[in-house]
Amino acid sequence: MVRGKQKEQAREKAQKLAENRAGGKSQLETRSKGLQMKCPVCKTPVANYKVIVQHMEAKHLKQTIPPESSF
C-alpha cells in the first residue's frame, strides 16, 4: 500500500476539520447576552438605551420614555 500513509493523514485532517465545524453554529446564547435591557411596556429585549428610545418612540407613543438611570 503506497497510499496508506496519505490516506491516514487525509482522514486525520478531515476529522480535525469536522471537529472544528461541529460547534458554534448557533449564536442564540451570544445574542441573548447582548440583549440585557427590556422595554418596560412590552418586555421586548433590546441592546442599549438608544435602542429603547427609538423603540418607545415608534411603538409606545403615549408612554413617557423612562430615564437611562432606571435601567
TrEMBL record:
- Compartment(s) of residence: Cytoplasm; Nucleus
Name assigned to this protein: C2H2-type zinc finger transcription factor
Q: Which GO terms describe its cellular component?
A: cytoplasm; nucleus
Q: Which residues form the Small EDRK-rich factor-like N-terminal domain?
A: 1-32
Q: Which residues form the signal peptide?
A: none
Q: Which domain of life is it from?
A: Eukaryota
Region entry Disordered, spans: 1-32
> Any idea which UniProt keywords this protein has?
Cytoplasm, Nucleus
